[in-house]
Amino acid sequence: MDFRACVLHPAGGEPIEATVRGRLMGPRRSLGNALVVGDVAHYVEEGGQAVVTEVTPRRNTFSRRGAGERAAEQVVAANLDQVVVVASIVQPQFRAGLVDRMLCQAEHAGLPARVAINKCDLVPDDEAQALLDDYVRAGYPAHRLSARTGEGVEALRRACGGRRSLFAGHSGVGKSTLLSALAPGVELREGLVNPRTGKGRHTTSAAWLIAPEPDLELIDTPGVRAFGLWGIGPRDLDQAWPEFRRFLGKCRFADCRHESEPGCAIRAAAEAGEISARRWESFRKLRAELEQEGAPR
Ligand SMILES: Nc1nc2c(ncn2[C@@H]2O[C@H](COP(=O)(O)OP(=O)(O)O)[C@@H](O)[C@H]2O)c(=O)[nH]1
Ligand SMILES: [Mg+2]
Ligand SMILES: [Zn+2]
Description:
With 297 residues, the chain is of the alpha/beta class. It folds into three domains: 6-55, no CATH class; 61-220, 3-Layer(aba) Sandwich (Rossmann fold), CATH 3.40.50; 237-293, Ribonucleotide Reductase Protein R1, domain 1, CATH 1.10.40.50. It contains seven helices and twelve strands. Strands 9-8-7-10-12-11 form a six-stranded mixed β-sheet, with helices on both faces. A four-stranded mixed β-sheet has the order 1-2-4-3, with no helix packed on it. Helix 1 packs across helix 7. The longest helix has 17 residues, at 277-293. The chain is globular and about 70 Å long. The structure holds guanosine-5'-diphosphate (GDP), magnesium ion and zinc ion. Magnesium ion binds at residues 175-176, 202, 223. GTP binds at residues 118-121, 169-177. One of its GO terms (biological process) is ribosomal small subunit biogenesis. Residues 69-227 form the CP-type G domain. GO terms for molecular function: GTP binding; GTPase activity; metal ion binding; rRNA binding. This is Small ribosomal subunit biogenesis GTPase RsgA.
């Protein structure tokens, strides 16, 4: 029987390994979405082994569309306080579509999000600043960072204090390096809590909580190359662009797609420089993609 292990962080105690009651698992005898990072679980001791018996209802979930042909939700983590979307400008190149999808998914989950532009040591200051400005104007707190030089790391640590924070981003942008900078010495601790699989942080395929201090809870996620939205259809999309909100309802047509319709208030705002042209373009691309998928999700 394939009882998968998890790691529990009892309040005020050391992390412990636990197995999970079979009935919590799905038909394929895998945990799937039944227990994810951030879940609050009840457990019992049975013959010296902790066994999870129940998962407390979640106050929020950050999900994505699972990989694979069939549309399926993949819950990445639960009970979060914020999402930190990490990106770089070069190595790898900035991908607006990916960043904006993640922000959009956070918005959909009702979670505050912030943008962290890492590897700023590799680009001219004004280039980083222009990108940060796009997000600041959209209403997102944005950080200029370099995990290598340490720039911005303290400010990000303060922004994460007391807020369980999920770090998400394209692979290679430096998420893991950044988390090590935010939580020095955490490698050792991971060695202690994850002995069964023998996998280190860089090889784990699931999201992973590190809590170097009681007040600092950071969740690393595996780097991705693509991020599919979950639970958001083309018609809800404009609600997930916070800087659009003050213009919504002002288009000539109630069902305006904010594409090239006459009297579109969003387009007018983008052309007047009141919202970022890049964010508008990113919205249109994503909306077109969701329409293509054709699923009224
Ligand atoms: N120049 C530079 N390189 C960085 C920075 N942060 C991380 N890296 C490098 O980028 C590579 C990918 O980092 P990693 O943390 O594994 O990325 P992840 O896939 O997002 O977790 C590694 O070789 C890091 O040393 C940074 O701020 N500046
Ligand atoms: Mg990583
Ligand atoms: Zn419009």
